[in-house]
Amino acid sequence: MDLATIGYVSCALVILLLAIRVPISYAIGGVAVVGIFLVFAFRTGTFMPERAFWATLSLSFSSTFDLVHSYDLSMIPLFIALGHIAYKAGITTEIYEAARVWLVKLPGGVAIASVAGCGGFSAISGSSIACASTMGRICTPEMLRLNYDPRLATASVAAGGTLGSLIPPSVLFIIYGIFTESSISQLFLAGFLPGVISLLGYALVIVIWVKREPEIAPVTDEVFTRAQKMKAALGAWPAVLLFVVVIGGIYGGIFTATEAAALSLLFATIFGILRGRMSVQDIIPLLRETMVTTGSIFFIAACAKIFVALIALTGLSNSLVGMLGESNLGPGMFLVMVCVIYLVLGMFLDPVGIMVLTLPLMIPMVESYDMNLIWFGVVIVKLLEIGLITPPVGLNVFVLASVIEEKTVEIGTIFRGLVRFLAIDIVVLALLVLVPAISLILPMSM
């Protein structure tokens, strides 16, 4: 059997399994193992399964072992634990509180504060879904209490939650860096400006929306004194410090990304205990949650690594690059094709699954066009960010709907409110594609 044929059939089979809702890890892992077995079994031209068994086991286990023992991968549990502990210690919620106190009198001020709070949470946790889940419990009930339109009260948090994909630290950037062998520190810095632009874009959407429909965001009669405003602003210093440690330390060459994660986690833990918000006994459940999330991500990544080994064995990447060269497809059309593929996949799959499924095939084609992998990583993560709020399966939308205690807001209402945020996301995406300097100016100045 031709090796390239095995590769193409394997990819088609993975897509079929995903279409019938088989979990991504089982789909790519199972197909990869069977595909590797067939490659070794047909190596001599005739089917000899006795020669394939141990070779398949050896390659599968070595691929998984190399991934799990990757130094860079240790950042994922550190940043996930940081997000849990920072929330328990009250560090993340104080960013929202400070923004709410200062912006409460502005039209749509609490919604803008929610987006700002999501941005601050993202700068600590690195997870979009965790951001949407946590801030959904805090921000959305407050806006509903103030008689905000449910579309605005939910959509602003669902969209703001996606900032965890771009604003460093980002779990998606870590996975992208491992699979493409790119600098994770540079990826973190590359995502900072696009993340800030996205945040400002969401705030602009809220301002314009409220200007046109003032009734969706009634002005509250709540008044805060200057002393209360200063207290709220100063109360956010732990979150600011954590962000400075991660970004400032990496940019200044003081820490690696992993060291910054470990130091931030240590600070958040000590701060939470000294502040009385958490005890030593509280750490165990938080670490248990971290282990569950980390285990899920690691399992998907391990199965993806086996799939990468299959792609390498079959030479599928070289075959696709050759076909791309024969088609005379220009870089612009290639990027359009990439955007369409990721936007469609984002409607049905989770971001980690999309990334591990597509990167083994996508990166060789990107390199054939001599594109910058750091910039391309930012574009990919922005596309995955958009997928989190795209119907019919926008993960942030379903996560948010599940944490609203009143259960009075329907999924359709959230999606209707997100139309405006999706529009600004497309604008930002076009800006990142057309002006790579936005993503590269910080990492290139290190």
Give a brief rundown of this model.
The protein has helices at 3-19, 24-41, 53-68, 75-88, 91-103, 109-125, 128-145, 150-161, 171-180, 184-212, 226-235, 237-251, 257-275, 280-314, 316-327, 331-346, 351-368, 373-387, 395-403, 411-434, 437-444. By secondary structure, it is mainly α.
Relevant terms:
mainly alpha, 21 helices, 446 residues
Number of strands: 0
Structural class given helices, strands, pairing? Answer: mainly alpha
- Give the biggest sheet: none
β-sheet strand percentage? under 5%
What is the count of DSSP helices, taking H or I runs of 4+ residues? 21
Described by the principal axes of the CA atoms, the overall outline is globular
Task: Give helix % range.
Answer: over 70%
Rg computed from alpha carbons, rounded to a whole number of angstroms = 23 Å
Low-confidence stretches: none
Topology as a string of helices (H) and strands (E)? HHHHHHHHHHHHHHHHHHHHH
What's the end-to-end separation, in Å? 49 Å
Mean pLDDT: 83
Function: Part of the tripartite ATP-independent periplasmic (TRAP) transport system.
GO molecular function, one term: transmembrane transporter activity
Organism: Pseudooceanicola nanhaiensis
Pfam family, one: DctM
